Amino acid sequence: MDISVTTDEYVAEDRSWLGSRDGTDVTQGITLDPALFTEATHFPDGYIASGTVLGRVTATGFYGPYNNGLTNGLETAVGFLFNSTKVRTGGPKVGAPLHWRGVIREAKLPANHGLDSAAKTDLAAKFRFQ
């Protein structure tokens, strides 16, 4: 048994990018692969920000940052990360919630969110953008 003192850090959640409560009660559990993210771009403070656009790698089923320039499945936007999620370079895969329908306030998305016109096309059937 380990009874040593440990310290955890938390970030204040900012979901101002949500334009409504629609879909917030039915997020989908997914697995993020930290190896697919770039630390300096996606988690410079140790957390991938909620509101980051995600894609799903076809071969593995793991989720990573949407990137229209790839051909492994990540080129198709599937939704937004609902909670800021702690990760580290070389760290284990982590569970997270996927926001897959609702209203999005584009101007309130976090830095390096990944939303572009191709992603908006991918997401058009499930999201309304303001």
Report on this structure:
By secondary structure, this protein is mainly beta. The chain is 8% helix and 25% strand. It has one domain. The chain has helices at 39-42, 117-123; strands at 28-32, 47-48, 53-56, 63-65, 77-81, 85-86, 94-99, 102-104, 127-129. The strands form three sheets. A five-stranded antiparallel sheet has the order 1-7-5-3-4. Strands 2-6 form a two-stranded antiparallel ribbon. The mean pLDDT is 95.
| Secondary-structure element string | EHEEEEEEEHE
Main sheet?
5 strands, antiparallel
What is the number of E strands?
9
User: Helical region count?
Assistant: 2
The overall number of domains is 1
Give me the side-by-side strand order of the main sheet.
Answer: 1-7-5-3-4
If you compute it from the alpha carbons, what radius of gyration comes out, rounded to the nearest whole angstrom? Answer: 15 Å
What is the helical fraction, as a range of percent? under 10%
Mean pLDDT: 95
Note poorly predicted spans. none
Shape: globular
Query: What class would the helix/strand composition place it in?
Result: mainly beta
Termini, distance in Å? 51 Å
Strand content: 25-35%
Quickly describe the structure:
It is built from two helices and nine strands, in the order E-H-E-E-E-E-E-E-E-H-E. The chain is mainly beta and 130 residues long. 34% of the residues are buried.
Topology readout:
Elements lengths: L27 E5 L6 H4 L4 E2 L4 E4 L6 E3 L11 E5 L3 E2 L7 E6 L2 E3 L12 H7 L3 E3 L1
Parallel strand pairs: 8-9
Antiparallel strand pairs: 1-7, 2-6, 3-4, 3-5, 5-7
Entry keywords:
single chain, 130 residues, mainly beta, 5-stranded antiparallel sheet, two-stranded antiparallel sheet, 2 helices, 8% helix, 25% strand
